[in-house]
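Field notebook, page 247. I keep forgetting to write these up properly, so this time I am using the form the group agreed on. The chain and the ligand, magnesium ion, are recorded exactly as supplied. Prediction of the bound pose follows.
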Amino acid sequence: MIILRSKDEIREIRKAGSILARTLEKLTKYAKAGVQTKELDAIARDEIIRLDGYPAFKDYKGFPANICVSLNETVVHGIPSDRKLRDGDIVSIDVGVRFRDYCADAAITVGVGRISEQSAKLIEVTRKALYIGIENARPGRHLTDMSHAIQQFVESNGLSVVRALVGHGIGTKIHEEPEIPNFGKPGMGPVLEPGMVLAIEPMVNAGTFEVETLADGWSIVTQDRKPSAHFEHTIVITAKGAEILTK
Ligand code: MG
């Protein structure tokens, strides 16, 4: 069942989203060569708590950090570590924030220093794919209309969309129904209605869409070890379209 959220609930999620957006903005400034990914984790934790939120990924299903930091071939769920960012890396930063009883979820991918043309294109196509998904998230449309639009756009740019991981509903829990694939036929799944709160998150690979999990039990990497990018926003379906809650 997809829960329709009230105006009051959406206000709380918007507050979580605004804490999250400010945190991502800060992290973007710190994502420079020489910075350890665990330093980004500490900055995120301090900022979220300073803004009266709580890092929603901490201990979620046992996740051992506050945020996910996924470098290069890591698609998602990278664990912050001693690893320093290097010129040419691309780094995906995924943050979850709880504010009182409600959650928001968003991610960005940024380049460190000078990145390859291929990596720059990967980031830009993934960012645009998210906004194409959001444009297709409108009341009366089927859920997979956005899935299809994302896949078409990504593949028309010679890149691939991850199949094994999907976006999701969000509210009092970080992951709620429905699942939101970034691929598939249009016109399927539930019809979108005002009050649905959704985390849309295309994960786009430079090579194969196939992924695997590393021995740490968390890091999802591309099977061919080519780079991957990830962008995510939490949105609410409104009478007119979609409102982004994580900005
Ligand atoms: Mg998510």
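OBSERVATIONS:
- The longest strand covers residues 90-99.
- The domain at 7-244 is CATH 3.90.230.10 (Creatine Amidinohydrolase).
FOLLOW-UP: compare against the apo run.
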